[in-house]
Amino acid sequence: QVQLVESGGGLVQPGGSLRLSCAASGGIFSSNSMYWYRQNPGKQRELVAAITAGGSTSYADSVKGRFTISRDNAKTTVYLQMNSLKSEDTAVYYCRWRDGKGDYWGQGTQVTVSS
């Protein structure tokens, strides 16, 4: 089955940058769309960015122009480059893989933006 492991989170100052990674195994990575979500306590989990198997991308309005999603099929890894970070970006970030066999989530990685 599919397994997803996020990494790259941490504490950064406003205006700083982080690069999140999601390493996938157990499926045909190159044939699936991949997604990044985020969630803060008391709020609904929201979609941040998505990338299709063909490389088309989409973003939440709140991160457009600041975040970039990409994938490396040879490494079976999806990335989220986050620039110009704001305090509002503080959340646990999750990687998602959904296909005909199931809906898979990583454990999440904490991103905290604070002075």
Helix-strand blueprint:
Blueprint: E1 3-7, E2 10-12, E3 18-25, E4 34-39, E5 46-51, E6 57-59, E7 67-72, E8 77-82, E9 91-99, E10 102-105, E11 109-113
Parallel strand pairs: 2-11
Antiparallel strand pairs: 1-3, 3-8, 4-5, 4-9, 5-6, 7-8, 9-10, 9-11
Protein described:
The chain has 115 residues and is mostly beta strands. Helix content is 0%, strand content 53%. The protein has no helices and eleven strands. It has strands at 3-7, 10-12, 18-25, 34-39, 46-51, 57-59, 67-72, 77-82, 91-99, 102-105, 109-113. The strands form two sheets. Strands 2, 4, 5, 6, 9, 10 and 11 form a seven-stranded mixed β-sheet that branches. A four-stranded antiparallel β-sheet has the order 1-3-8-7, with no helix packed on it. The chain is globular. The mean pLDDT is 96.
